[in-house]
Every structure is written in structure tokens, then in C-alpha cells.
Amino acid sequence: MSRLEVDVAVTRGSFALDVSVTVESGEVVAVLGSNGAGKSTFLGALAGLYRPDRGSVVLDGRVLDDVPVHRRRVGLLSQSALLFPHLTARDNVAFGPRSTGSRRRVARETADRWLEMVDATALADRRPSELSGGQAQRVAIARALACEPELLLLDEPFAALDVDVTPAIRSLLRRVVRAAGVTTLMVTHDVLDAVVLADRLVVLDGGRVVEAGPTADVLRRPRSAFAARIAGLDLVPGRSCGEGLRTAEGTVIGGVHPDPVADDEPAVALFSPASVSVFRDPPKGSPRTLVPVRLAAMEPHGELVRLRAAVPDGGPGWVDGLAADVTPAAVADLAVEPGDELWFAVKAAEVEVYPAGR
Amino acid sequence: MTSVPRLLWAPAALAWLLVAIPVAGLVVRVDWPNFLGLVTTPSALAALRLSLETGLATMVLCLVLGGPLAVVLARSSLPGLPFVRSVVLLPLVLPPVVGGLTLLFLFGRTGPLGSFLDREFGITIPFSTTAVVLAQTFVAMPFLVVSLEGALRTAGERYEAVAATLGASPATTLWRVTVPVVLPGLMSGSVLAFARALGEFGATITFAGSLEGTTRTLPLFIYLESESDLDGAVAMSLVLVVVAILVIVVSRTRDLR
């Protein structure tokens, strides 16, 4: 049982990463970020593969900064299984225990136990070249856990798998990580990984933590545009006011305050794209908040069509990326195409305004 | 398959024939009725035996010294690594005779290292079997280093990084991960070094001379015989050709697997 405290800064060329995260003993934390957000650099610094410019990694009270990789007791599972090609699945799993001093027989027993945990007993005598991607990843999971790491790092562990095997491996990993009770830190760009596996979410953007909190809270009430987007919500930043929220340039978005908010505090307005109506011309006498947008893109979204907004000429910047989900019939009635100017409308009752920052 | 421009067929055929015809001519020229007698004369057998023994010793020396050098070249980040690499490659382009001369200057009785060894330990290296092995190692080492460094770079450091996260020390990682992963490259590099040692002539004759049973390897024997007994030289040449073909077959089957 080991608590992890990380506070690292790494600069690579023009990219700067500065992240501070704490993972409680036995907890699973997902670091979520788009490509280029600095996820892999962060993980490399934790595993000891890169040396951070500043900061420290403390695991279970041990400062890891000057500890070589092989003495850190930090396991790493990456997107490719990287099983040693010259060893059977069993010997791959036994490699860790053997390297840390277990006798051959004990290491083999440990390996067999872990192979059973990941439902790969039948694969024990196979070579990596005889395993499918999903089978290899099962063995890699067993191998990472068989040396009983104090911290397990997961680097997009499902990114290279076939879509049809990903759900099975994802739930398997959830089961064994929970059973082992190992402190786990995962980086991913897939929100589903976080939902299935993580207790807490840390959202990384531009090399910084923009949001952190229990997974369900972050996804229900995101505070940053990036987190809102992965949670599938529309978010408008501004300051709270009596009617709802006032944006920087003065547009008032009508909304409700589920939690008490003082006037003129930094706040965000959240609403579901499904609650947004779309018009070609502004409707007369509507009680809804009306926002002029330029249509950037249309994409299928389940049974609906998601319209993505861009900033129209002279319009406010926060419009960029707002989404509206409408029925295909409504899209046909509107007869729109990307580049057209439209109006997005949302009822005050469907907009929730929360204080920004947690 | 892309089609080959017609223009290339003629020079390609010529290139192949340039190698194949002389070897075929050798087979025709062999005095077959007396072949067995020619290749089993005492001096021929002594030369063959010396060649195989020094070739194997060279291969081992290349592995023991060149193997670590290849790992350093492929994995370390020493400053001046390009310079180190160019020096290792020098024997590939240097005439072997020049290599033999440099060794002679170093280990000769008046040379800096040779006079020291002679004075302190009474050891004289030039014109001994040790000199043959040193000369062969000088010219054969780059073959092992280049082939092994290539294998190490192709394999990359991913497996080694994984081994470290599993708790394996750098030494354990080397023996249990790096060496097995690059084994094919290690094998073909060793076979190439052995083959190059077997064919060594210039450096050997300059540094080790041509004493029957001590330093007269097969190529030296063939060269000497060609001046007096051409039939014997041709017969032993064929033996070398057969050994060379065996070496190619062995290293090729490893590549194909």
C-alpha cells in the first residue's frame, strides 16, 4: 500500500510540462489529455526513463528521484505488450520475480498464479509470436503485476488493441488492479478508460493540470472547455450574475444556480448539446438565450446529428466548439451546410451555472 | 513486383559472371585424380589446421572484445562516439598490409609495446601464432561490431526499458534480454568475422610471416604453392571456396529464419 506524490516539471524544446498529482494508496487515478498534452512525458518521468528538470517523485515515503529504474518498484504497462520474444508467456511473467531474486520454482508458481488471474493459463507455453494482440496484452498485465510493484503505470494500455477485444481487456484490467489493490496511475485520451477504471480524474491541457476530482464529478460538472468536451457537454466561461452567467464581452446566458453562487464570481455555464435548438433566423419573442454561430462541421452522433459551431464574423470567441445535437429531419428542414450562419438557442432551465474552480 | 528496366540486365549478368566464371574455372582446373593426395600433404594439412584454429581464436577474441564495443557504440551517449566508430571501421578500408605494418611497429622488438613486453615478460609477439590471431582480429573485428551494432539498434531499447521496470538490473537485462534478442545478429557477425579471418593474407604475412605450422595459414600456403606447385595451390583454393560457401549458407539460413 503506497501513496504517491508527484510534482515534476519537464521542458522539451518549446513544450513545458508542470504537473503535481497525489495518488492515495490503492487508488486508481486517470490522467486525461489530448495528444500532445504531455501525458507520455509525465509517465516517463515517473518510471525514471526521463529525468525531470525540477520536482520530485515520492512513493510510500521514498524519494525516487535518484533511484535507478530497476529499484523503483514501479511497473509499466504500455500500449504495445512488448513481451520478450525469446521467452514463453510463462517465462515472461516469471521474468520479474526471477530478476528480483526468487528461485526458479517459486517464480514459475507466481507466474502461473498471475496467468490464471488474467485467464491466460492456456497460453503459458506459447511464444509471443503465437499470441494475438489481446492475448499478449493479458500476459503483459500479468507480467507487470507479478513483480508486485508499489505503483503501476498504465500508458494508454488499450490504444493498440482491436476494438472488439478492448472492452474485455479493459474490464479484466479493472478486476485485477482492484484485486491487487495496487496504487495505479493511468494516462489516456479515452474518457471510457477513465470511467471504467479510475476513482479520480486529472485533466491535463498544454502541460498543466486544468482540472482534478472524482471521475463522476469531473464528468458531470466540468470546469474546463477540454473536460467539458470529453464529457460531451457545452461549456461557456464567464462570471455569475442574477440571470445566470455573463460572458467577458457581456452576453448574458440565462441559467439556474444548483449551488449558491455569489454575484460576479468566476463561473461556467454547462448544458447538454441535446438541449440546444438551431434556427436559421432568430425566433421572435423567444425566452431562450440566442447565440449567433457559423456552422463548422456536421457529424453523426448516435441517432442525432451533431452540429459544431465556429465563431461568426465579429462574434465572441467562446462560441468556438459549442455543439448542438439535432434530429436528421431538423437538419434537412434547415438545409444548412458548413460555413452557413445560424442561431443556437438554449432555455434557461437547461443551463446550470457553477462556480469555476473546485 | 516492379519490372526491372531492360538496360540493367546485361551489366547485372556480367557482374554475376565475373564472380561465377573464375570459381567455375577453378573447379575445372583442379587435378581431380590427384586431388585427395594434394590436399592431404603434411604442409597442406598443417596450414588448414592452423587456419581453422586461428580463425576460431579470432572469432572468440572478436566476441569478447568487439561484443562489448558494439554495446557501447549502440547504447551509450559518450561524446566523440562518431570518432570511436570511424576508428573501428578503419580496417574495412585500410589495405591489410598497412594494418600488419602498424601492428609490427607497435609490437616489434623496438616498438613501444613490443620492447616493454620483451623487457618485462620476455614475450615476443611478431612471427608467432599469437601474431596471426592479432592480425586476423585487426581486420575481422569491424565485421562483428558493425553487424552487432546494427542488430542492437534495430532491436531498440524498448525491451530493456521494460526489463528495468520489472526489476532487472542492467547486468541481468544484458544477459537475459539484450543478448537473446540480438542473438541472430551476434551469430551472423561471428560467422562473418570467422570467414574474414580465414581469408586474411596481407596483415598476417607482414606481422606474422610465413613459418610452416606456426604462422603459415591457408591463404599464405596457397600463395607460396602457386609459385612452385600450381596443382596443390588450386586444390587448396577449392577447399577454401567450399569453406566460404558453407559460411555463406550458415549465415544466410539464420537470416532467412
Produce a short descriptive summary.
The complex is a heterodimer of chains A (about 350) and B (about 260). Chain A has about 350 residues and is of the alpha+beta class.
Note down, in words, how this protein is organized.
The complex is a heterodimer of chains A (358) and B (257). In chain A, helix 2 packs parallel to helix 4 and helix 3 crosses helix 4. Chain A is elongated, with a radius of gyration of 24 Å. Chain A is built from nine helices and 20 strands. The model of chain A has no long low-confidence stretch (mean pLDDT 88). In chain A, 25% of the residues lie in helices and 33% in strands. Chain A is α+β, with helices and mostly antiparallel strands and 358 residues long. With 257 residues, chain B is an all-alpha fold. Chain B has a single domain, classed as MetI-like fold (Orthogonal Bundle), CATH 1.10.3720.10. Chain B is 79% helix and 0% strand. Chain B has 13 helices and no strands. In chain B, helix 7 packs antiparallel against helix 10. The two termini of chain B are 22 Å apart. Classes of the chains: A alpha+beta (358), B mainly alpha (257). The interface between A and B is medium-sized, with 26 and 19 residues.
Features:
A: 358 residues; alpha+beta; six-stranded mixed β-sheet; five-stranded antiparallel β-sheet; 9 helices; 20 strands; 33% strand; B: 257 residues; mainly alpha; MetI-like fold; 13 helices
Topology summary:
The complex is a heterodimer of chains A (358) and B (257).
Chain A: E1 4-12, E2 15-23, E3 28-32, H1 39-47, E4 54-59, E5 62-63, E6 74-77, H2 89-99, H3 104-117, H4 133-146, E7 151-155, H5 166-180, E8 183-188, H6 191-197, E9 200-205, E10 208-214, H7 215-220, H8 225-231, E11 234-241, E12 244-246, E13 252-254, E14 266-271, E15 276-279, E16 289-301, E17 304-310, E18 323-326, H9 328-334, E19 341-346, E20 352-355
Parallel strand pairs in A: 3-8, 3-9, 6-7, 7-8
Antiparallel strand pairs in A: 1-2, 1-4, 4-5, 9-10, 11-12, 11-14, 12-13, 14-20, 15-19, 16-17, 16-19, 17-18
Helix pairs in contact in A: 2-3, 2-4, 3-4, 4-5
Chain B: H1 9-29, H2 35-39, H3 42-75, H4 81-93, H5 96-107, H6 112-121, H7 129-155, H8 158-165, H9 170-181, H10 183-198, H11 202-207, H12 218-228, H13 230-256
